Structure formats: structure tokens, C-alpha cells
């Protein structure tokens, strides 16, 4: 999203509902509008052709270690957008805490924090040919560079977050807004990051494959916390395993790979935020999850918003049936 324009959410259609929104009982993050590249619209900024993009003397890289879901793009170029949006929104899994990488060689020209308005925590990198890239909504405290620092392609800049004008204001809305400019912010050239970095290689040398919207809803992620507790997490869902055998079997069936993601307690709690799982549903001292059916923390327990909603519905119906 482009909060620097003061138009965040304006002109957007109703948000799309995804499986996550059904689990959480809320609107899915990221309104998507089918944009128009109509020449009749009067832009305050300048656009460039695909050939001019290809002619830039810059070697580009992908902004993450692995593919991300790409949503709203630049108004005026092909793809989903809304009026005045001048960057591309990338949604990662997990939403919050994913490493953000510089898309090309350059020098860090600006670092800032607009608070909970505008860009939030951001980094600006100056590249060759007067081109600069801007990385918005980063996680507070995650900035890994300093102003004036020369950097290379794929240098870690910070981590994805939900600072600034992000709507709805919740971790599930966390994303990277990547904008690429030449000249003045609103009257210069706005380049299309999709044409520049979407097919650029990752640090591992692979070309990201296109990913369907909300692809992460179909996956669960296995976490090993403090090298002893095993959890399976997906949006609005968490399961604790007390035995590694069933844990490994389940991981191999539902996870995208056969490796556990090893994290410390603090980092794992941040990941719970990005998945929409309340922190108080987990006890990391002994390894337990609040089990809705049992009504207490349980070793091997499982919690989800869906189960919570079902339990609440049963309680309401029982209360109604017991009315005098």
C-alpha cells in the first residue's frame, strides 16, 4: 500500500474473503481492486515502457529469500491496484518478521519511522542511474543498515512488519510496500517493481514461481521452539506435539517441506502474531496449548479460532435452551 499518498484504502473495493477470514471471522488483509492502465487518467507522475525498464543499467534481485504473494501494484501499469497507488505490496509467510532484502547494489540514503501513520518504519536505497527503492511498513527494531552504508544486492535491510498506515491494523495485514522511483516523489518517474524484480533471482539463484493469492492458507508451518517444543501453526490454528514421531509424520503430510523451523521463544511469539494466534493460547515454559474442548492448557493440545467459535456457539445455544 502507498500510505505516503494519504490515500490508503481510498477507492478500493470490498476486501476479498479468504479461508483465513473464515477462520478468523474477520475480513482478509489486503483489499484488491482490478486496476486500469487507461491513458485517460491524469497521473501526477510519469510512467515508463517495458523496454525502458529493461534498459536500466541495474542488476536486480528478488526482495526476499523465497517467493511472496504479490497483490496491489502501481496505478497505471497492468495488474490489480487502486487510484494513486505507487508501489507493489508483497505478502510473505509469516506476515511479520520475514527478512527484506535490497533489490540492487546502492547506498542507504534514508531510514525513518513515521509512527503509525504514513510509511511506518522505512528504508530508502539509492541505486545507479538516479533510481531509488523504498521499503515500507518494516518491523520496528528490525533495521539492519545505516544511512550512508554502501550495500550490495540482497543485503538484509530489515524485516516485514505492519507499522505505518496499514489496514486493518493487525499483524495479518503486515506486508512490504516496495516502490521504485527516479526524481521527485510524486512528479518524477514511478517504475513498475513487477517488471524489475518479480522475475529476478533470489539469493539462492532461483527464479521465484508465480504464487496464487492466499496460497499460504493451504499450508501449515512446523516450528521447533527453544530446541524442545514442537508446534504446527497455520493462520488461526496451533497444535502442540508431545512426541516427535506423530509430529514428524504430520509435518511431512501438511507442511511445504520436511524441515522444522527452529526459533527461540521470543521470535516464535512474533510468528504467532503474524498467524493471528493469540500468545496466551500457548505456554512455552512446559510446552502446552490451550485446548478449547478441555478448557485448559494441555500437552498435545490444539487451538483454533474455528474451535473457539464452535464452543461459543454451543454455550450460547445451551444457555438459550436452559432459559425458564
From TrEMBL:
Pfam families: Peptidase_M23 (PF01551). Gene3D superfamilies: Glucose Permease (Domain IIA) (2.70.70.10). SUPFAM superfamilies: Duplicated hybrid motif (SSF51261). Residues 84-180 form the M23ase beta-sheet core domain. One of its GO terms (molecular function) is metalloendopeptidase activity. Coiled coil: none annotated. This is M23ase beta-sheet core domain-containing protein. It comes from Microbacterium imperiale.
Amino acid at each position: 500500500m502507498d500510505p505516503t499518498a494519504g490515500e490508503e484504502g481510498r477507492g478500493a473495493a470490498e476486501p476479498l474473503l479468504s479461508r483465513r477470514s473464515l477462520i478468523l471471522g474477520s475480513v482478509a488483509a489486503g483489499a484488491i481492486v482490478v486496476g486500469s492502465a487507461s491513458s485517460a487518467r491524469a497521473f501526477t507522475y510519469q510512467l515508463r515502457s517495458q523496454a525502458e525498464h529493461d534498459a536500466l543499467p541495474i542488476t536486480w534481485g528478488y526482495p526476499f529469500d523465497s517467493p511472496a504473494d504479490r497483490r496491489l501494484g502501481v496505478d497505471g501499469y497492468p495488474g490489480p491496484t487502486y487510484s494513486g497507488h505507487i508501489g507493489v505490496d508483497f505478502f510473505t509467510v509469516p506476515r511479520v518478521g520475514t527478512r527484506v532484502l535490497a533489490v540492487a547494489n546502492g547506498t542507504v540514503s534514508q531510514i525513518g519511522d513515521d509512527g503509525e501513520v504514513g510509511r511506518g518504519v522505512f528504508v530508502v536505497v539509492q541505486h545507479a542511474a538516479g533510481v531509488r527503492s523504498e521499503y515500507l511498513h518494516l518491523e520496528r527494531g528490525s533495521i539492519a543498515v545505516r544511512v550512508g552504508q554502501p550495500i550490495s544486492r540482497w543485503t538484509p535491510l530489515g524485516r516485514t512488519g505492519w507499522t505505518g498506515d496499514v489496514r486493518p491494523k493487525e499483524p495479518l495485514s503486515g506486508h512490504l510496500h516496495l516502490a521504485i522511483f527516479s526524481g521527485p516523489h510524486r512528479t518524477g518517474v514511478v517504475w513498475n517493481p513487477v517488471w524489475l524484480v518479480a522475475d529476478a533471482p533470489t539469493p539462492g539463484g532461483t527464479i521465484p514461481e508465480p504464487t496464487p493469492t492466499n496460497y499460504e492458507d493451504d499450508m501449515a508451518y512446523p516450528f521447533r521452539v527453544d530446541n524442545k517444543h514442537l508446534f504446527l501453526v497455520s493462520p488461526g490454528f496451533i497444535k502442540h506435539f508431545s512426541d516427535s514421531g506423530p509430529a514428524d509424520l504430520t509435518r511431512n503430510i501438511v507442511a511445504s517441506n520436511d524441515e522444522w523451523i527452529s526459533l527461540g521463544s521470543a521470535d516464535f511469539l512474533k510468528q504467532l502474531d503474524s498467524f493471528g494466534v493469540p500468545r496466551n493460547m500457548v505456554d512455552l515454559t512446559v510446552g502446552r496449548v490451550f485446548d478449547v474442548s478441555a478448557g485448559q492448557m494441555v500437552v498435545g493440545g490444539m487451538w483454533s479460532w474455528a474451535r473457539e467459535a464452535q464452543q461459543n456457539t454451543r454455550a450460547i445455544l445451551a444457555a438459550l435452551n436452559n432459559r425458564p
